[in-house]
Amino acid sequence: MSDVRRIAVFGPESTGKTMLAERLAAQLGVPLVREYARERWDEQGGVLGLEDMLPVAQEQWRREDAAAEQARASGAPGIVCDTDALTTMLWSDLLYGTAPEALRRGAERRCRGYALYLLLDTDVPFAPDPQRCFPDAEDREKCRRIWHGALERRGLPYVWIRGDWAARERAALAAIRQALAG
Asked: pTM for the complete prediction?
C-alpha cells in the first residue's frame, strides 16, 4: 500500500473505537480515517444491507489511501483508521452469513498492509446506539472472539487494548509510538 504506517482501531461494537481513534490521531498529529459505514447508515435512513458492504469497503479504502497520501505529503509517519475492511467483512459474515467476494479478496489483501491493529476489548460498558446490534454479554463475548480470531488466523500484528478509558489511551499511544518508530 505505501510507506505510511497504517494503524487500525479494531474490535467489536461499543468498545470506544471512534473516540479512541479521534484522540490518538489528534495527539499524534496524523490523519484520521473516519468510519464510512456510520455515514452511509445515516444517509440511508438507518438501513444497510449486504449490497452495501462492498461499496462501504471501497469508500473506506479510498479514504484511507487519500489519508496516506496526505500523511506522505505532510511528512506524518502514519494514519489512524477508525475501522478497516476486515471489520466490514466480519460484519457482513455476521449479519448476512456471507460477504461479497470482491470485499473478501480486498480485505484479505489490505489487512496485510497495517503496521498495527489495536484490538479493543469488551471490558467497558455497552453504550446503546441505533447502529449497534449486540448488547448482551454473551453476544459481546462472541464478537470479541470473532475479532480476535480474525487477527490470530491471519498472523496480523496487534495489541490488546483493555481497561478504563485512560488506560486504553495510554496503552494505544505506547503501541503506536513503537509501531511508528519501527
From this structure: 0.92
DSSP code string of 156-175? --EEEE-SSHHHHHHHHHHH
Domains of the chain: 5-181 (3.40.50.300)
SS3 string of 70-88? HHHHHCCCEEEECCCHHHH
At 1, is the pLDDT very low, low, confident or very high (cuts 50, 70, 90)?
very low
Contact by Cβ (8 Å): 8, 115: no
Q: Which residues is 160 bridged to in the sheet?
A: 119
Dist CA 23 CA 16 (whole Å): 11
- Is residue 158 within 8 Å of residue 171, measured between CB atoms? no
